[in-house]
Amino acid sequence: MNDADTKIEQVLTAVIGRATDRTCPPLLARAVRYAVFPGGARLRPKLCLAVAAANGDSDPALSSAGAAAIELLHCASLVHDDLPCFDNAGERRGKPSVHVAFGDQIAVLTGDALIVLAFESLGLAAGECSAPQRLPSLLSITSRAVGMPFGISAGQAWELEPSVDVSHYHQAKTGSLFVAATCAGAAAAGADVEPWTVLGERIGEAYQVADDIRDATADAETIGKPVGQDAAHGRPSAVHELGVDGAVGRLRQLVAEGVESIPDCPGGNLLKLLMLEESKRFLPKDLARRAA
Amino acid sequence: MNDADTKIEQVLTAVIGRATDRTCPPLLARAVRYAVFPGGARLRPKLCLAVAAANGDSDPALSSAGAAAIELLHCASLVHDDLPCFDNAGERRGKPSVHVAFGDQIAVLTGDALIVLAFESLGLAAGECSAPQRLPSLLSITSRAVGMPFGISAGQAWELEPSVDVSHYHQAKTGSLFVAATCAGAAAAGADVEPWTVLGERIGEAYQVADDIRDATADAETIGKPVGQDAAHGRPSAVHELGVDGAVGRLRQLVAEGVESIPDCPGGNLLKLLMLEESKRFLPKDLARRAA
């Protein structure tokens, strides 16, 4: 594990530990821990910390809290997405999904509690950090990414509309939390936020394309969740639109555009290298070789 | 409508209007508006504004945002509570509950989006108000009230445990948001928070007792939701424990204790009168006469 990985697990462990202590109903406490640990790739919080570092990371407590908040919101969305009334997904990250392991009621509450905890942890960190004046911006960035009209809740709700604008849908459902990751990293470090939106958008779109490719080509064991879900649910997919090779090309182009957009900052060059490296892990190894 | 009522509807209208504009998926936008308007008694935001006023209300934009956040969190909890996997309640506030009117998926998303919106509106207000340094406290107070280990999510989760501490359960499920209301009012006005917890606790417990009484004695048309739910779900109830007259006596005692706890502040006496007046409306008229 590198420094960022360690830091992310540490801050998540601290936040979840406090929330699921002995005074918490035991079943909810177990389900919340189950939903967050062990994690997936932790891409969003890594992106947040990387952007904060590139901007000097002048308030590490705040950037860590921002990264944790974003990961908790992501985990919450996965738990609710998997519910029987939505994807009815039996597996997630290679184990039974939360509602299968703990029941629908606990799964609804787990998602709710994780959303609340994300914002609570921001407030607690801001009460103890060196630059609390950055909290309103951080709060707006993270909440906007998961609410409505532009965030994850809205993205999910577009699936229920008779007609969907595909880019609108992907931007809300996946892109928004990547944009929040880059912008929260900048905001926590006291940098200008706006120049960092393009990186979040492109990396988010690249990840979505990678997800479409994995859904269409990988097996469930490799990616730890059911495959073929886009086709089964009639959801928009880059593979459906461009074919596998076209989608792989599109992914490369998006990462290049994102890297190109990185504004001048103390750690800009290092961040560019990191982005290129990290994005290689978006795909299963054999496809990554095709993309290289 | 008095000033506080008007102010609450205005700020909720503004917050919901922004979130459900034309860029929001139409079904989600309709469901969110349906979940918030027309409201119930708006007891919690009224309590928040009343405590802020009693403390001089030096930042009205912040106290209004706090009141709105608390009401949105309350509405969110009702929508998720009513879901088939929990209470499976077909009616709320005299009309079909959100999942009956819009489906389970939209109901889950409506609750999620309202939770997010509550915190988002705090962040936006703090970005524009005169005392943004009060935001961390306001954020902690409101999030603690709805999360875990002590908030509404935890309260709901206690229902799923084999053994429940009744006061723990009620404190989490109902009391926590009343405590948040008094404390948020104080925090938004820059006052000491801690002395205001007892008022919130007692008024919250009084309201819970009133709810138990209404559930056991009223008819569905009068209270706008199904009755007899506590008995049907085997939930703890003050009526079951004390009988109707005993419960009415308990309610009076709790309100008196709450009023007694109000700390010295510029508008303390007015607040005491207001609390006594408001708490009379907790019960249907015939029972209120018995309690007088």
Word description of this protein:
Chain A is mainly alpha-helical and 292 residues long. Chain A has a single domain (3-291), classed as Farnesyl Diphosphate Synthase, CATH 1.10.600.10. Chain A is built from 15 helices and two strands. Chain A has helices spanning 3-19, 26-36, 43-54, 60-81, 98-102, 104-128, 135-146, 152-158, 166-188, 197-217, 220-223, 229-232, 238-261, 268-279, 285-291, and strands at 91-92, 95-96. Chain A has a two-stranded antiparallel ribbon with strand order 1-2. In chain A, helix 4 (60-81) runs antiparallel to helix 9. Chain A is globular, with a radius of gyration of 18 Å. Chain A starts with a helix and ends with a helix. At the A-B interface, helix 2, helix 6, helix 7 and helix 8 of A face helix 2, helix 6, helix 7 and helix 8 of B.
The string of secondary-structure elements of chain A, in order, is HHHHEEHHHHHHHHHHH
* Overall radius of gyration of chain A: 18 Å
Q: How many separate domains of chain A?
A: 1
**The level-1 CATH class of chain A:** Mainly Alpha
What percentage of residues of chain A falls in helices of 4 or more residues?
Answer: over 70%
Strand order of the largest sheet of chain A: 1-2
State the separation between the terminal residues of chain A, measured CA to CA: 24 Å
Low-confidence stretches of chain A: none
| Number of helices, counting only DSSP H or I runs of 4 residues or more of chain A | 15
Strand count, sense and closure of the main sheet of chain A?
2 strands, antiparallel
